[in-house]
Request: fold
Amino acid sequence: MFQFYFHMSKIKKKGPVTGFTAYWKPQSGLWYLVAVISVLVTLVVDVFVPDSQSVNTLPYQIFLGIFIAILIVLWIISIKVKTLRKILYHQAQFIFAVGFVLSVWDILTTKSNILQLPFFPGPAQIISVIVSERETFLISSYYSLRLFSIGLILGTILGIGTGILIGWYRQWYYWLFPVIKIIGIIPPIAWIPIAVVVFPNSFIAGLFLIVIASLFPVAFMVSVGIASTPRVYYEAARTLGANERFLLTHVAIPNAVPDIFTGLTTATGFSFLTLIVSEMIGAKAGLGWYINWAKTWSAYDKVYASIVIMALVFSIILTVLNSTKNYVLRWKKGISK
Amino acid sequence: MSKQEILINISGVNRVYYDTTGKATIALQDVNLDIRKGEFITFIGPSGCGKTTLLRLIAGLDTPQSGIVSIEGQPVEKPGFERGFVFQQAALFPWKTVEDNIAIGLKARNVYKEKKQNIKDYIDLIGLTGFEKAYPHEISGGMAQRVAIARALINEPKVLLLDEPLGALDAFTRIELQNTIRDIWKRTGITIVLVTHDVDEAIFLSDRIAIMTARPGRISEVIPVNLKSERDRNDDDFIILRRKVLEKLELAGKHWSSRLIDPLELPNISGVGEAI
Reply:
């Protein structure tokens, strides 16, 4: 608390920041206007500057058009919704930069051919590939997501179970904790050669790898969370009539929930990595497989397109995870930031 | 007074702590005390006099090396809901709302369904109506202690054990809570044992004050508080009693320093020699 105050007072002295809020960028409509214009300029550049690569630029232009439309619609909504306006104005400078970078990229590639195909496609080329290959991307994303979510859920359940056993019972701690500690630090992808041989198909092998990738971080954090429960919580519960089982279910496990989420975040990151690498090596479907397949055909526009799709899909997953965490840990608000 | 029923009996209790090097500290030595049903008794003394240890022995959170603590004739072996405990730091469960914190005793005893309508009454009793859905981090320290008291009371314990519950609060909040505690005691008729180092608090709240001395911890004297029921901190009798308690505490302090000089006076308990 004291540190927080100290931090605030330092900020106040330095700059124009008047309060410690999430949206601290200048709340100016002018910047937002500049941002919209920058995206508009990007569109104008793509429409009016002649191409020097043969690229279907129409999807890109439609994309930019939708982008501008969304910016305008959001601004209109924000006339009523003040919090949205704060967010929009906070993001204005970044949106401006996005427009600027897209313009430069477009000029360097599609417009001037300074960066050449196939290795350096422009934004128009990537968007055009996403649109024309949308079915393949949808199917690949579906396969990747299926493997990922089954693996992560299974790994998390097993991890929470193992973590509770280790954190609560000393026999389990004695036998399993060293195993978790030693095996847990092995990068999951090191198991690929073994997984490929041991399991009947690539799906189960991939599942095994993702379970491994998520189980260990979750189990470790859960056991730490349970073991670090303040003694006074147990004492309070016991004077209120709690038995051993109640201490576990109503004191130790709830106390470990923040750590479960820490473990889960790490597990999600590991699982992304493991998913893509295992698909690149062993699978016959999924985004990782597609990226590898596109590479062998030197179709680098497709490689970039899959990277864009991955960024999108993984960001959505992390956002969902984060909002779940914020909701479940709402009792913690203000304690930690 | 002596005809009153005895609720808690403490007889011949010794508690010695050993640190990692095997050095012994006598927390309690040959402590004897009867606590009557419905009375408000306070343990007061310098730090290290074992007052908290004694309270924890009654709660069953600690066990004596020798001697016995019994409640209604039953020896205390482990914690139980019939001995409610309020800790110095409220020790509320941060992941539960005020309401759910108060409900936890009912859940732990599997009587939640039958008794959940009582929760509201206890929230009223401690004056926290409107804060049912608040989380512990959203309420003040004084409010947290109110919740901790309600959480213990909802189990309808035979005795309420308060371990310096107001020690960390500011003066105003402390007086407010002292009034609340006295009010609760009058309304419910529950037996309360309080540990404190605040003389005014002890006199304001108690029927009897047990003065404790340090190293080794023991009860040196039990002073009855013969004041009228409506207590006034500026009353003459109150002030006279305050002086008396302070004198006894000072004497207790001197007693302790004389013990430091003469280790031979120490009784014969294993490890005691190394303690001083």
Residues 6-82+206-275 of chain B form a domain with the Rossmann fold fold (CATH 3.40.50). Chain B is about 35% helix and 25% strand. The first helix of chain B runs from residue 51 to 59. Residues 256-276 of chain B have pLDDT under 50 and may be disordered.
